[in-house]
Amino acid sequence: SHSGYSAIFALGDDLVVENCRFAGVRNGVWGGRGALVRDCSLSGSGAMSGSGFGLNLNVCSVVEDCSVVGHQMGSYTAITVRTGSSVSRCVVVSNSASLDFTGVGVGPGCVVESCVVYANGAGDAMRALDGSTNSIIADCSVDRNNSGVFDLSMVAGENSVVSGCRSDRNAGAAGIRAGPGAMIVDCSAASNAYDGIQLAGYCYAIRNQACGNGVGSFSAGILTTGIGNRLEDNSAMGNYAGISLSTSNNLAGANLTGANVTNFYAAAGVTNHFGKRRTVSTPYSDWNTYGNMSH
Question: Which of 174, 200, 207, 278 has its CB surrounded by the most CB atoms within 10 Å?
């Protein structure tokens, strides 16, 4: 514990830090290529001006079973790793920044799994979980984070995969933004201030749940922001708009919407392709299993 200073600053390769506790430091661990940081905790001890970070590691590094809790700074990044790294089973909770904040940020080709980013705040830009291109984000939870400006809680870059993740109750932010060319499967986005799931083009969204997003604003459970997306077997309930195809050349089928101000929106004057839309109020059967249903 040494208020206002870096705990470990090691630019060399293959650094190993295990089972360590850091309290009240401005910067935690800065490591070079191939670093391993495991079973470590970093905790804040009062407000500090300026910027800081928890873990900042170079390419091909591994972070496992770490926690970053309770820091207060001008700008703060809890965990950041660069190309080809992995972050697993980490917790980022109750940190705040008067300017910008990043919970877990990763470079291209990284894997983030089983991480929790909860109840963090930013006066300006907020990225609770920020994934770059060709990354995998699996079984992660981003919940109750607060951005001072419109921002994005969970981001997956071009050609990434997001699987089994939750993005819920984030204030001042949308839930999940993916793409272009990303796959979003078995995810939940609920009660976020703006859109639940944004598809940035040529994405495949399947078996996702988007509920209660954008209430009181013109936002959607699932929104296309780029062209050529495919949406199948998703459920969008209780949003301002359920599914919004605001761009062209999207394909939507076998989706369920209900209790939205507008259940299904397709922009006028552009070409989209979707299964037969049917509004149902009583039990029925239909051979057209690719149809979209509203109730």
Answer: 174
